């Protein structure tokens, strides 16, 4: 029964992905740093920062699938959720674009390390199929969305659960802050690579951060609410699997 319900849910998520991919507004900009935009030195630096997390994430995924193979479909759902949300490019008032990230749900379910793999696979597909991001900048984009975002989201979730014990509020905060932290890191990456002539890094950070802030704050709130809805759906139809996940995360 779980496999049938999860398969229907996965098909629904993928259907939305195809729909929004075909019908998304065309724009020359994207939040992911585009191909060739970063200087070579910075591109290599962010690849070097990302690769250790990817290796640790692979080890974590192998462990999960060996110890609890019944959670493979849940891993697929987390990856599909990330793909759908991060593929929705929304033009901002500044001429750039913003989008949700979808990594908070997977971070809450499996921890941050598996999301370094799932998120980077999503970014690779988007770079190859949607021209959203790039291959030389994949390390930088993966570090911001698949590493930093999930780490912040997971840390916030664990802290709020210990402080308040309110799971839904903790999930909302985790998803919203995983989203916002991705954009903060992206702004830092761009500011380091392109410091302003007047004011240097800080002036550039204020500029890049301001570009995304107008649209990203409401998007982060919306993503937090949507993540709670998905969590409620999983509790209604996949409570056994969520119980396994909760026990696994407590023992981690």
TrEMBL record:
<feature type="transmembrane region" description="Helical">
    <location>
        <begin position="40"/>
        <end position="61"/>
    </location>
</feature>
<keyword id="KW-1133">Transmembrane helix</keyword>
<comment type="function">
    <text>Part of the energy-coupling factor (ECF) transporter complex CbiMNOQ involved in cobalt import.</text>
</comment>
<keyword id="KW-0812">Transmembrane</keyword>
<comment type="similarity">
    <text>Belongs to the CbiM family.</text>
</comment>
<keyword id="KW-0169">Cobalamin biosynthesis</keyword>
<feature type="transmembrane region" description="Helical">
    <location>
        <begin position="138"/>
        <end position="157"/>
    </location>
</feature>
<keyword id="KW-0170">Cobalt</keyword>
<keyword id="KW-0732">Signal</keyword>
<feature type="transmembrane region" description="Helical">
    <location>
        <begin position="208"/>
        <end position="234"/>
    </location>
</feature>
<protein>
    <recommendedName>
        <fullName>Cobalt transport protein CbiM</fullName>
    </recommendedName>
</protein>
<feature type="transmembrane region" description="Helical">
    <location>
        <begin position="73"/>
        <end position="90"/>
    </location>
</feature>
<feature type="transmembrane region" description="Helical">
    <location>
        <begin position="169"/>
        <end position="196"/>
    </location>
</feature>
<keyword id="KW-1003">Cell membrane</keyword>
<keyword id="KW-0472">Membrane</keyword>
<dbReference type="GO" id="GO:0043190">
    <property type="term" value="C:ATP-binding cassette (ABC) transporter complex"/>
</dbReference>
<dbReference type="InterPro" id="IPR018024">
    <property type="entry name" value="CbiM"/>
</dbReference>
<feature type="transmembrane region" description="Helical">
    <location>
        <begin position="110"/>
        <end position="131"/>
    </location>
</feature>
<keyword id="KW-0406">Ion transport</keyword>
<comment type="pathway">
    <text>Cofactor biosynthesis; adenosylcobalamin biosynthesis.</text>
</comment>
<keyword id="KW-0813">Transport</keyword>
<dbReference type="GO" id="GO:0015087">
    <property type="term" value="F:cobalt ion transmembrane transporter activity"/>
</dbReference>
<dbReference type="GO" id="GO:0009236">
    <property type="term" value="P:cobalamin biosynthetic process"/>
</dbReference>
<dbReference type="InterPro" id="IPR002751">
    <property type="entry name" value="CbiM/NikMN"/>
</dbReference>
<dbReference type="Pfam" id="PF01891">
    <property type="entry name" value="CbiM"/>
</dbReference>
<keyword id="KW-0171">Cobalt transport</keyword>
<comment type="subunit">
    <text>Forms an energy-coupling factor (ECF) transporter complex composed of an ATP-binding protein (A component, CbiO), a transmembrane protein (T component, CbiQ) and 2 possible substrate-capture proteins (S components, CbiM and CbiN) of unknown stoichimetry.</text>
</comment>
């Amino acid at each position: 029964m779980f496999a049938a319900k999860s398969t229907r849910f996965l098909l629904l998520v993928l259907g939305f992905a195809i729909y929004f991919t075909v019908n998304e507004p065309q724009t020359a900009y994207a939040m992911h740093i585009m191909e060739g935009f970063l200087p070579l030195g910075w591109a290599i630096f962010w690849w070097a920062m990302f690769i250790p997390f990817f290796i640790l994430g692979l080890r974590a995924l192998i462990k999960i699938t060996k110890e609890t193979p019944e959670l493979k479909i849940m891993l697929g759902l987390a990856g599909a959720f990330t793909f759908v949300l991060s593929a929705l490019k929304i033009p901002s008032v500044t001429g750039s674009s913003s989008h949700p990230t979808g990594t908070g749900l997977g971070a809450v379910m499996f921890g941050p390390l598996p999301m370094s793999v799932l998120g980077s696979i999503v970014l690779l597909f988007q770079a190859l199929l949607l021209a959203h991001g790039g291959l030389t900048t994949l390390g930088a984009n993966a570090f911001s969305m698949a590493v930093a975002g999930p780490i912040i989201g997971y840390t916030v979730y664990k802290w709020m659960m210990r402080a308040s014990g309110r799971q839904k509020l903790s999930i909302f905060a985790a998803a919203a802050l995983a989203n916002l932290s991705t954009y903060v890191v992206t702004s830092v990456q761009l500011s380091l690579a392109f410091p302003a002539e007047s004011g240097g890094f800080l002036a550039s950070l204020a500029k890049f951060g301001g570009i995304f802030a107008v649209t990203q704050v409401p998007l982060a709130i919306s993503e937090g609410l949507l993540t709670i809805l998905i969590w409620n759906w999983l509790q209604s139809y996949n409570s056994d699997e969520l119980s396994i996940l909760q026990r696994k995360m407590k023992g981690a």
